[in-house]
Amino acid sequence: MKKSGLIVLILCVLLLVSCSSAPASDAEVEELIRVDLILPTGPVKTSETVPFEARVTQGESPVEDAQEVEFEFRLADQVEFQRIEAKHEEDGRYRIEKAFEVEGTYEVTAHVTARGMHVMPKKEIVVGDLWRSELR
To answer: What is the dihedral of CA 132, 133, 135, 136, to 10 degrees?
Structure first.
């Protein structure tokens, strides 16, 4: 009796293993989203309105359906920051315009959530007439 029970158990295990889905390595892996953070070129003066853009792609295709695209601005070495929601334009481009009231070096971070992924590219921008020795 014990032998027949063991044989039935082994057959059940073999049946379950043979009916399982394809291994995970055969599953298609979704390509990561890419965010190109585009800052103003040239010097930025205080009170001057300048554009900021995030180009969001997945593979070769623009991402038109991002759930969140925000720009975060933080004056270097400060705790406080400002976040501004970007507007979708076309071809995966999300854009804002901003003016700075205080000179300094700012960290600009784009927060992008799209297709189950979150990406946060970061760059720096200098506002005002800072000398090179004042830059970090």
So the answer is: 140
User: Which amino acid, residue 7?
Assistant: I
Domains within the chain, CATH numbers bracketed: 33-131 (2.60.40.1930)
Contact predicate 108/126, CB 8 Å: no
DSSP character at residue 1? -
Q: What is the DSSP string of 12-64?
A: HHHHHHHTSPPPGGGSPPPPPEEEEEEPPPS-B-TT-EEEEEEEEEETTEE--
Report whether pLDDT(14) > 50. yes
d(CA 51, CA 108): 12
pTM: 0.74
DSSP 86: P
Mean pLDDT of 94-119: 97
Predicted pLDDT at 77: 87
d(CA 32, CA 115): 9
Work out whether strand 104-114 and strand 68-75 pair parallel, antiparallel, or are unpaired: antiparallel
Q: Which two tokens stand for residue 19?
A: 């009916």
CA–CA gap between residue 135 and residue 102 (Å, rounded): 15
